Amino acid sequence: MSTSAVTSGPLRRVPVQGRSVARVQRMLDACAELVDEVGYEGLTTTLLAERAEVAIGSVYQFFPDKRAIVQALTLRNMEAYLERLAARWADASFDHWWDGVDAAIDEYIAMHRTVPGFRTLHFGDVVDVHLLDEERDNNAVIAERLAHVLVGQFGVTDEPRLRFALEIAVEAADALIKLAFRRDVDGDAAVLHESKTLIREYLHRHVDTPPS
Amino acid sequence: MSTSAVTSGPLRRVPVQGRSVARVQRMLDACAELVDEVGYEGLTTTLLAERAEVAIGSVYQFFPDKRAIVQALTLRNMEAYLERLAARWADASFDHWWDGVDAAIDEYIAMHRTVPGFRTLHFGDVVDVHLLDEERDNNAVIAERLAHVLVGQFGVTDEPRLRFALEIAVEAADALIKLAFRRDVDGDAAVLHESKTLIREYLHRHVDTPPS
DNA sequence: CCACAAATATGAGTAACATTCATATCAGCG
DNA sequence: CGCTGATATGAATGTTACTCATATTTGTGG
To answer: Other C-beta atoms within 10 Å of A22: how many?
Structure first.
């Protein structure tokens, strides 16, 4: 989604008092609800202000434009994902590297089902794929974290090859999971299963674990 | 593979005289240029009218709204793709079923490079994924055509399993090729190569050819 | 408890944009 | 040539994103 950088930074002004912090959260919550209800195209600023029970001017106190609101929401979702994933990885220590990848996929699926706005915005393909990092796509950042964990926890040989394979895998998995949720509100089970199979078999050919 | 059937879709009124047919084409051409230049979000109706050297009213003679213009362009691109693909399949008779799939991928890549607007709109993920068929995604339609050819020309066993695998494969390939063109204007060669490998290896496990 | 400044909240007002419609022009046909 | 439907036009209208002058609240030092 090549959106020529016309406007949209992150926040116009950072909320410092408690009330305004809560207010910005309410705006993001309203944004999430509405985006699921009417889609990104159907979202209007007045609708958002009404749902958040906020004057339209308050929105523009903190956000430079409409796009930035959706970006901020996407960013919040991505950070929540990374946190949850880190928690999962910290909790259970996996027997095989695949279990780590499997957890990443499962968490992504879970958030599609439970987090408002997630099924519509995913990881930013609607608004901007460069939220976490200037240089790389959001998916590339996810891939990098995965690579880091695979190397650290499972002693996978770290080579450029591994990171490349993971970027490919993440991109494919992302697309297939989106397909599953386009087909079925809860995620088409057959598609989800097949996605995992495809990714697992692909990675098996590119991830080398040293003999333990 | 005739193109006449679909024309009634997004059009408010079908152009009957020669001049208006050419005019609608000019609008679509202008739309393609602009979408590549300023992105879908940056596209405005006045910009489009100026570029097409047409009064704004003329646009609305045929298109109900802005979205319909982009839809019509995407549809034109998809039909061009299907026609080119049919031509390829008709010309060379392939030794192996993979050559057919390979041709489909290559043509998709070629159009990304040569057809204005294609690298931005792809097969409609920006506007609508249900242009060719009410029920199914655009990619599902492509998958069906592929299945039809594989069964007809190569005697691949037709089973629901095959079509399902192709839908998965098309979706994944689509996402990976988009990634390649996000990374590099001409399509990142390494990503494109890896995409083909992934798809080929995946399909090898799901496409059965009877002994000839 | 009282200034006083900084932060925040407000919504009528402005600008940009999508879309309409009354009217003018053109193509084809008898 | 005159008539009819198709096409072209752009000022006018409605909708939406966004601004700004002003009011209110919060925190802080005296």
So the answer is: 11
Is the sign of the CA dihedral A38, A43, A46, A51 positive or negative? positive
CB nearest to B168's CB, from A2, A3, A176: A176
Q: Which residues in chain B have Cβ-Cβ distances shorter than 8 Å to A191?
A: 168
pLDDT by residue, tens only, chain A of 212 residues: 433 334 466 899 999 999 999 999 999 999 999 999 999 999 999 999 999 999 999 999 999 999 999 999 999 999 999 999 999 998 877 889 999 999 999 999 999 999 999 999 999 877 777 878 888 899 999 999 999 988 888 888 878 899 999 999 999 999 999 999 999 999 999 999 999 999 999 999 988 777 65
- Tokens coding A72: 């901020």
What are A57's two structure tokens?
Answer: 């001017």
Do B69 and B31 form a contact (C-beta atoms < 8 A)?
Answer: yes
Residue A74 near residue A42 (C-beta atoms within 8 A): no
- A153: CB partners within 8 A, 6+ apart: A89, A93, A94, A97, A100
D10 C1' – B50 CA distance, angstroms? 13
Nucleotides of chain C in contact with protein CB (under 7 A) are 7-13, 16-22, 26-28
Name the minimum distance, in Å, from the CA of A194 to any CA of chain B: 8
Q: Which two tokens stand for residue A160?
A: 């450029």
Residue B95: DSSP 8-state: S
- Listed in sequence order, the DSSP H helices in chain B are 18-42, 45-51, 56-62, 66-91, 97-114, 118-121, 138-154, 160-183, 189-204
A168 and B202 in contact by Cβ < 8 A? no
What is the distance between the alpha carbons of residues B137 and A148, in angstroms, rounded to a whole number? 36
Distance, in angstroms, between B39 CA and closest chain A CA?
5
Q: Count CA within 13 A, CB hemisphere, residue A84.
A: 16
Cβ of B16 near strand D (under 7 Å)? The reply is yes
Give pTM, 2 decimals.
Answer: 0.93
B77 phi and psi angles, rounded to 5 deg: -65, -45
Maximum Cα–Cα distance for chain B, whole Å?
62
Element (H, E) at A112: helix A97-114
Q: Token pair 């949850």 is at which residue? A: A84
Side chain identity at residue A112, one-letter code? H
A58 is written with which tokens? Answer: 């308050």
Amino acid residing at B199: I
